[in-house]
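Changelog note: in this version the structure field was regenerated for every chain. One regenerated record is shown below for reference.
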Amino acid sequence: MALRRGLAEARPRFLEVGVWLQPDPSIPRQTDNVSALDFLSVSAATDDKGFHPVARSCVQRRFRDAGATFEERAGWLVPVALPGDQKRRATVGIADLAHLAKVELRPAPDSIAGDAVLYRISPRRALVLGSAESVALATSSGATTIDVTGSLGILAIVGPEASTVIRRLTHLHDFPKGGEVAHVTAHVLPANDGYWLVFAQELGDYLYEVVVDRAAALGGGPIGVDAL
């Protein structure tokens, strides 16, 4: 019993902030420096001995099962079109934007250069999303940057009924905001003609099922990124 209690006390405590787990600030840390693991970066992958690396979204299988046509873009396999996606887009479409670059900035800036999306999670942390070029421009200020592209997923919810889907998923309002979405933690960001749902990639399969189910009840469903 004493050994079990000792192991429990030695285990790090974490506070959930948004979709990321951050160390409890009451526990002293050895350093605040962040090391970049470049070998994990999608952009660092290169062809070798006939092997062509390509990143796949956490909902890639779901879109494939729905009949999506894929293209490689920015090192990712992206669902660009689905049969009937224009019809679904006319009510509410669900698109996979996992291929967008995602970088966390510390501390959070008040503004950024270019047309990337800035989402301030707190005064200490912000998320920048967009094309690789726009995110690179926005993160050239010298702040600490952490590439979280592979750890986060994005579902775009667009169309006339996008707000209806969001209301059926969460009690959150006054976006952008993070909190409970379909009983898990995610962030909702306003976007052109709809919203971006940002979440930890391990939640992708579940959130796809829930979001598409809400959209299907309104005559919508999955669409390719070219239908946005």
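Spot check on this record: The CA atoms of residues 90 and 159 lie 6 Å apart. The longest strand covers residues 184-191.
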